[in-house]
Amino acid sequence: MMNRETLDTFSWAVVAEKRSCEAEPENLSSEEMKLFRYMLEQPNEKRRLEQERISQDHINSSIQQWINDH
């Protein structure tokens, strides 16, 4: 669920990140890597989406979509 749609939908749940990880994670898709780099470019107060605040419906829908795609 590390995609721009989720970030935009839950933008109200984006919070400050005191110390961001700047090392690029391994095994991200190209879309995920693009979003990771985008978030690094943001001011510290807009660098982390609190994933625990994403709605259960959105999570379920994302998982179902992933299952359908694979």
Question: How much of the sequence is in beta strands?
Answer: 5-15%
Q: Give the topology string: H per helix, E per strand.
A: HEHEH
**Using DSSP, what is the number of strands?**
2
Number of domains: 1
**Ends distance:** 15 Å
Q: In which range does the helix fraction lie?
A: 40-55%
> What is the count of helical runs?
3
Low-confidence stretches: none
Q: Tell me about the largest β-sheet.
A: 2 strands, antiparallel
Q: What spatial order of strands do you see in the largest sheet?
A: 1-2
- What is the alpha-carbon Rg in Å? 13 Å
Shape: globular
Class by SSE composition = mainly alpha
Average of pLDDT: 90
Oligomer state equals single chain
What layout of secondary structure does this protein have?
Elements lengths: L3 H6 L4 E2 L14 H12 L6 E2 L6 H14 L1
Antiparallel strand pairs: 1-2
List keywords for this structure.
70 residues; mainly alpha
